[in-house]
Design goal:
This protein has about 190 residues and is an all-alpha fold. About 75% of the residues lie in helices and about 0% in strands. The chain has one domain. Helix 2 packs antiparallel against helix 4.
């Protein structure tokens, strides 16, 4: 039978696995699509822009999701520690300040060696639970950003096609066939 911590670890690992598979399946087709639509004389430019946008997107994603994670950790610890009875107010304020500054590991704060073993185990479980909840909230934000980005890409593509830019497949299909250099017959007008 799986323990509670193994189930929680599985719940945290599942989004990482799904993200890895999704990114792996998306990068190659996106790169191929961008490079296929670039004019031959601009392939180098397209490659550079694609690489730059990928790097900027990665950096912005890490920065935004890191800020969300830190905010959720601080909020979870602040709310959680205020609800725990029996901790002196000065200790609570130290824990909240350490969580807000990012100077704290996700576990029982240093200097808690005088706590009974049961209290240490309880505090350790609470801190891990608060961290897991913060990671889950961060994944929700990541999914929202991904969905908004996908919708923007879809709407941008629809907007470009509606503006009159010919679809490359339609242009290829509509090209007249060459029959040995003879001009195509012209339609009669009345």
């Amino acid at each position: 039978m799986l323990g509670f911590s193994a189930i929680k670890a599985g719940l945290v690992m599942a989004p990482f696995v799904i993200s890895g598979i999704g990114i792996g399946l998306a990068v190659a087709p996106v790169t191929s699509a961008v490079m296929a639509t670039a004019p031959k004389e601009r392939v180098g430019n397209a490659s550079g822009v694609l690489s730059t946008m990928r790097q900027i997107g990665s950096l912005m994603g890490i920065a935004i999701l890191g800020a969300v994670l830190q905010n959720r950790i601080t909020a979870n610890i602040t709310q959680g520690i205020q609800a725990v009875q029996g901790i002196p107010e000065a200790i609570k304020q130290k824990i909240i300040a350490a969580a807000g500054s990012g100077a704290m590991q996700m576990g029982v704060p240093k200097g808690a060696s005088g706590m009974p073993a049961t209290a240490q185990a309880m505090m350790d479980a609470l801190f891990k639970g608060w961290f897991t909840n913060a990671v889950a909230s961060t994944f929700v934000v990541a999914v929202i950003i991904a969905v908004v980005g996908g919708l923007c890409a879809f709407l941008l593509r629809s907007h470009v096609q509606a503006a009159g830019e010919p679809d490359p497949a339609a242009v290829h299909d509509a090209a007249p066939a060459s029959d040995g250099g003879a001009p195509a017959p012209e339609a009669e007008t009345s």
